[in-house]
Amino acid sequence: MINKRVSTQDPDHFTYGIGFALNLPNTWHGRFEMMGGGGTDGSLNADPQGAAGVEVGQGWAVAADDGGHEDNPANAVGGYQDDDANAGGSAHFAIDAQARRDYGYNGIEKTATTAKQIISYFYGLDTVYSYIMGCSNGGRDAMVASQRSPWLFDGVISQNPGFNLPQAALAEAWNEQVLGTLATSKDVNGQPFIPDTFPQQDLQVASAAILSACDALDGLVDGIIDNYHACTAKKVYPALASYTCGTGSHGSTPHGGTCLTSGQVDGLKKIYAGPVNSRGERLYSNWFWDAGIWTPPTAPGAGWQLWNVVTAPIPGVNTAINLTLGAGAIPMIFQTPPVVTPVNGPTGQEAFVFKFNFDTDAPKIFTKTAAYPESSMDFMAAVATDLRPFKARGGKLIISSSVNDGIFSGASIARWYRHMNRRMDNHATDFARLFMVPNMAHCGGGAATNNFAGNELKAITDWVENGIAPDRIVAANTNTTSPYPAGGVFDPRVAQNFPTGGTRPLCVYPRIASYKGSGLTSDAANFACVDPNFGRGGDHDFDDDDDGHGGDRH
């Protein structure tokens, strides 16, 4: 452990410190990888093999940390925990200002620095190449490192990054409040019961409606919207109208698997537009319209449904990730000072989410106090666009992101990349490349070509060590049959042309994959990466700032 201490700020006087593990292979080839964390951290990976799962076996030294706190006394560090069900649950650590810093950025920096010292002592040689790789909060860890500690890593892989996580948390509350207006019953905590608002068959209809509007925009009807920038509300809204029960052309029975209620359609429009305050000012980002709103049973993953609606159905209990993991983080981590709430009950974490005020609570992601001198955006966010120190050192950055994974907006990371490119004199691709993945659920899964971690790892090492920049990364689908039904609400060509068990290229943003017109649609060799020539305006305005302060009206 690094900096083990007993907190004086935490009323429970829990023990805190940065727990870490380091794997040192018998035969070492000079590479070191720091693994990013996940969620609110708090559980040490005692046997880190690498984010791609192969690194130690290939002779890498690999480290992982616990984010500066532990959520179970039986975890690898052992003997203590920092959870309190009556005061924040697994996010209780955020009551301690130093624990917040360790979670936000300090844990990665201290662990990587210490690990390199141990490596030098153990092998008698210094690390030749240093990397960091992680997804979700681990992707945020990676982007934070490139901005705060540009000297620390030569290569950075950031997957589905929560790079502006406090702002994304505002969308979590926004989405649940919108869905709450559709609820017809209460859960055990007296809050709107969300699972019934969008049953799986309704999400399937929503996916079909979006595909009917936009699937052909990339030249191939295959269940994948590659030209996501062209899939605007102007195109999607008429399709949703066509699939509205009673007034559309796809039936009139709510929840019957052919249409959506008018309330559901209005709710989707409000969610996809993104959270705003009472003045209509944007607080986070809008969202790309993506077919991955439905996660087929044969292609499971933490997609839109699991984050927003339900994970494991339990009568009377809200299990959506936004209302479990998210509901703990929103009051404790993303408010300053933290709002200490019990996990359950009528005044618990769920209640805080459903009563969240977008005029008075949302600005508190920027608040600083004497006891908490860094705001949530200060210690969590990786929104800087001036990456000159990282570039000057020779650092290389690969970001891969779902187009819409249900928790982090693909439109937001794409907009950040465009602003960063502009700040870097339109030469971002010299050192940083973004790859967008349609349909993929959060950190994998979904009806997508989502298996590419090994190729991504090779891409960053080739770029760092050999100067070979990746123009495309080949991604595979692992389904044995199409996850889409051959008919029903879907165009039959969707199941026919989906890359079942095959490959597709992930292209360097803003290029998109385009079918060449012949050959198997499940072979990446038959697709080119082309410029879609998207311009300013539309749903995804280049000049939106997404800074959470408002100022952009929608």
TrEMBL record:
Keyword rRNA processing: no
Hydrolase recorded as keyword: yes
Keyword entries, A-Z: Calcium, Disulfide bond, Hydrolase, Metal-binding, Serine esterase, Signal
Single annotated GO MF: carboxylic ester hydrolase activity
Pfam families, sorted: Tannase
InterPro entries: AB_hydrolase_fold (IPR029058), Tannase/feruloyl_esterase (IPR011118)
Protein family according to the UniProt entry: Belongs to the tannase family.
Protein name per UniProt: Tannase/feruloyl esterase family alpha/beta hydrolase
